[in-house]
Amino acid sequence: AMCVAVAVAASCDSAGIGSCASSVASCYGKNPTNHCVCYADEVSCLEGLGCGPNILSGVVKACEGTGCSVSACGGPITNNCNSTAMGKCASDVSVCLQAGTSLCDCEADLVACYASLGCGSQVLAGVTKACESAGCSASQCAP
């Protein structure tokens, strides 16, 4: 039997992560012999909350540690959202500004750059907020 994780929370915060974890705990009870499927459920539950790859790959690593294969754990997770890649996005923006392009266009490029790395909704929300607080419109800042 497949256990289906039902996410009540809609964001990747401690409550949302907790709800995914508790659905996994009940999954364990139902699948004592195949716990790998529970981790895979947790990964898809967290993806549904918009959690970024750092959180997802942590779950996959923990799952692998219990003897499951990467694919059984719901992986592999593509994690391009690292400090090097994020730094490249930021330097692209300073090049953009030096070229005399409007601040909002450059900020919008930054949001798009982070989105293309698959950074997850929390990171994107932060960059989008920074873009809006620079005086740009929400539509300009949307990923």
* Class per helix and strand makeup: mainly alpha
Mean pLDDT figure: 84
The largest pleated sheet is described as: none
Give the topology string: H per helix, E per strand.
Answer: HHHHHHH
Shape: elongated
* Count of helix runs: 7
Question: How would you summarize what this structure contains?
Answer:
Helix content is 63%, strand content 0%. The chain has 143 residues and is mainly α.
Describe the structure.
With 143 residues, this protein is an all-alpha fold. Residues 1-9 have low confidence and may be disordered. It has helices spanning 14-30, 36-48, 53-64, 83-98, 103-116, 120-133, 138-141. The chain starts with 13 loop residues before the first helix and ends with a helix. The protein has 7 helices and no strands. The protein is elongated, with a radius of gyration of 18 Å. Helix content is 63%, strand content 0%.
